[in-house]
Please model this.
Amino acid sequence: MTESWAWRKSSFSDAGADDCVELAWDTDRVMIRDSRSPHGAVLGFSRAHWKAFFDHTRHTSHPRADDPPDRV
Model:
């Protein structure tokens, strides 16, 4: 089923990087998969739930993996 989706890689990924997430969507759902495992598990969310998640993360401070320990 996921073969027909137009998967898009994160704009934060390097052009040749394989270690990131990819998104695909249609009118009802947003699908997420690991780019290293394109035939593996896919997470699906309703567009309303994806928007709520996106809005929350956009307005919340999260430590990054490369932040110094005193910031985590």
About this structure: The longest strand covers residues 29-34. Residues 52 and 58 are 10 Å apart (CA to CA). The mean pLDDT is 80. The longest helix spans residues 47-58.
